[in-house]
Design a protein that fits this description.
single chain; alpha/beta; Rossmann fold; formyl-coa transferase, domain 3; 6-stranded parallel beta sheet; 13 strands
């Protein structure tokens, strides 16, 4: 066989099998998976994963969590995210561990014709191919959908790219921040009248990974329910950003260009009050944009401060007088003395509110622990680490990842041997 498994980094001493087991964390207690039949919905689905860094790996992480066998194809140097922070050893990144839990890893050199030929043999037995390489890279090696569809007519293939494989920028390379800029998302972030600011989160990449996951599962269902051929799915980071505009984009679409939505600092530009407000000791978030919720909040404010001289009864009026609304909310909060008391009073009145939690506090928060939002796993170099769990829960199916992220090329020999047996 042509694939070569690189030597893995030395691992810490551990009990036999500890490298492969995943555990769940609840209030920092570890509960191992009980031995039981795997009833996850995608068991039996084989995915060949040509993805790297974030958008594609998040999609295939979700597929793996749902039970699919995900075989990650890495170049000899590995997925670039293996060297992203936080790092606790060569090729052992917490970032990579999060996005690639539950997958297998093989190493293949796409410049090597023999490796490409073996990949074609592997894809002939697969259900799904996912890739987020530079547009056209796989097609240039004979691994594009047109060639693979002839090889495996039932194959579902999904490509994730910045601008898609059709349209004015088809085939051009890009990254999440570029797509967010071109989709108008960055223009909506920042202080009113100030400079647009990049987001503090990877919206384009993660959302495109989620959209790709949903599209792939839909295509698999169609293939099963209609006994149809596989098909090609084109996901762009640009398109994936657009739904997040919410009201702003529809104002443009139905306003014949007369409306120009723009950034509005820590308040929603089209719904008031809906944003981040200041208590004496900390910030808090408040969402009272509907008339029912505003009625409840208005009574709290009026009881404490007296009635406003401005008519704030409609959202349109509150948008125009958003500064007055903010002054009243924050004056009322000052009277309560703290963000905690403010949030308690709002919740008691049936008004959605919450703290602005620092990222460092999130994994250990009561909400995250009670939701089992993080799972704990053993890495051969990093030791026991926590990663975000699958965001959705099933009533009768455990969708937590069963295995840690693989070492580079860890499963090359296994997959090559299996492939050789099927060809024998």
């Amino acid at each position: 066989m042509c694939w070569q498994a690189p030597r893995l980094a030395p691992s810490r001493a551990r009990a036999p099998g500890a490298n492969a087991d995943m555990s769940t964390t609840k209030s920092h207690d570890v509960t191992t998976h009980a031995a039981a039949p795997d009833t996850r919905p995608l068991v039996g689905v084989r995915v060949i994963d040509f993805t790297q860094v974030l958008a594609g790996p998040y999609c295939t992480r979700l597929l793996a969590d749902m039970g699919a066998e995900v075989i990650k194809v890495e170049p000899p140097a590995g997925d670039p995210s293996r060297v992203l922070p936080p790092q606790l050893g060569p090729g052992h990144s917490g970032y990579f561990a999060w996005l690639n839990a539950g997958k297998k890893s093989i190493v293949a050199d796409l410049r090597n014709e023999a490796d490409v030929a073996q990949l074609r043999d592997l894809i002939a037995q697969a259900d799904v191919v996912v890739e987020n390489m530079r547009p056209g890279s796989l097609a240039a090696k004979g691994l594009g959908f047109e060639d693979l569809h002839k090889l495996n007519p039932r194959l579902v293939m999904c490509s994730i790219s910045a601008f898609g494989n059709s349209g004015a920028m088809a085939g051009q390379a890009g990254q999440g921040i570029i797509a967010e800029g071109m989709a108008g998302v960055i223009d909506m972030n920042g202080e009113a009248g100030g400079q647009p600011l990049p987001l503090g989160v990877s919206l384009a990449d993660v959302s495109s990974g989620i959209h790709a996951y949903g599209a792939i599962v839909t295509a698999l269902y169609k293939k099963l329910s209609q006994d149809s051929a596989g098909e090609y799915i084109d996901i762009s980071l640009f398109d994936s950003c657009l739904p997040y505009h919410d009201i702003a984009l529809m104002q443009v679409c139905v306003g014949s260009g007369k409306v120009n939505p723009t950034r509005n600092g820590n308040e929603h530009p089209q719904v008031v009050p809906y944003g981040v407000y200041e208590a004496p000791d900390a910030a808090f978030v408040l969402a009272a944009g509907t008339e029912v919720l505003w009625g409840r909040l208005s009574r709290l404010l009026d009881d404490a401060l007296g009635a406003s001289t401005e008519d704030l009864s409609t959202n349109a009026q509150r948008i125009k007088a958003h500064g007055i609304v903010r002054q009243r909310v924050e004056a009322w909060s000052r009277g309560l003395g703290s963000a905690r008391r403010t949030i308690e009073a709002l919740k008691a009145a049936g008004i959605p509110a919450g703290p602005v939690e620092p990222v460092r506090n999130v994994p250990s928060s009561e909400l995250a622990r009670s939701r089992r939002s993080f799972v704990s796993m053993e890495d051969p170099v990093m030791g026991r680490i926590s990663i975000p769990a699958t965001p959705f829960r099933f009533s009768d199916t455990n969708t937590e990842p069963r295995k840690r992220a693989p070492g580079l090329g860890e499963h090359t020999a296994e997959i090559a041997a299996t492939l050789a047996q099927t060809k024998a």
